[in-house]
Amino acid sequence: MPRRPGLSARLKLTLSYAGFLLIAGALLLGVVWVFLLRYVPDNSRGLLGIAPNRYLLVRMFAPAAAVAMACLLVFGLLGGWMLAGRMLAPLTRIRDAARLAETGSLSHRIRMKGRQDEFRELSDAFDAMLEQVESHVAEQQRFAANASHELRTPLAISRALLDVARDDPTRDRGEIIERLHTANTRAIDLTEALLLLGRGDRGDFTREIVDLSLVAEEAAETLLPLAERRRITLDVTGVAARTSGSAELLLRMAANLVQNAIVHNHPADGSVTVHTGAYGDGSVLRVENTGCPLPPELLPTLTEPFRRGAERIRTGEHAGVGLGLAIVHSIVRVHDGTLELVPRPAGGLVATVRLPRTR
Asked: How far apart are CA 220 and CA 324, in angstroms?
């Protein structure tokens, strides 16, 4: 919004310094008049019969006082201008950094040196903000690039199949249609996952009381056929654990955790345990599975979009689109909770979700 031009902060501080200095000089002159000149007799004999008298003293004192006030004014303006510039120098550095950030350069940092004061705290806060913005922008750029790549794959497959059907009329139409259906289904699943991830990040949903134990049972019941096909034992234990949030999003969170535990498991004879409970002020949903040992350095990357286990590749029928744990992390964050991923010593993963408890 455009605003009318006004005085700069440096000029305002300069005028303030000069004004205070003039006021102090005027008060000093007033003190001299009140406590000195008023006791000088105003007659021809002066004080103790010795000249000069009050009239002469005032005649001599007034020009000197005027010169002193003029010197105070000049000194106040010059000194105030330099002092204001010195005091506002940190703000100039912060302004320059903000203008650089406005042009898209987020790598610049102020890194102000010196003692801890208000300007240093402002500079450190601005640097921290720039670091977070740069990290967020880089994450969004990676996400957009990965999403474009993931969406391009099924679309390229669909176009290739259509080209084959057009150029080779003798090709089995049923096989082409089935492969087109698979590619189209994957594109739809990825699009829905991206929409759900965006919805979770925005947090635009109506809150209600949700029992995590019922959510866990529903998710396990839905994914039980998948577990049976893979010969994975699926158990649900625990007690009621109520929280406030979106039942749909929390169900998707639990389903993603259970599906991830089933898919990333032993080829056969593995197990998945889902447990819910209320501990203190938190409601907990814990999903534990067997599987291959996970290196500790892999854990921080599991919640990044388009990460698929240790191999980072798509295998099997239900490998997903690499957004499962990213969606879980987004849903947990928007519900003011925490997601903790801990590798099991014998292999597999323990995923623990802690949400605020609602009594």
From this structure: 16
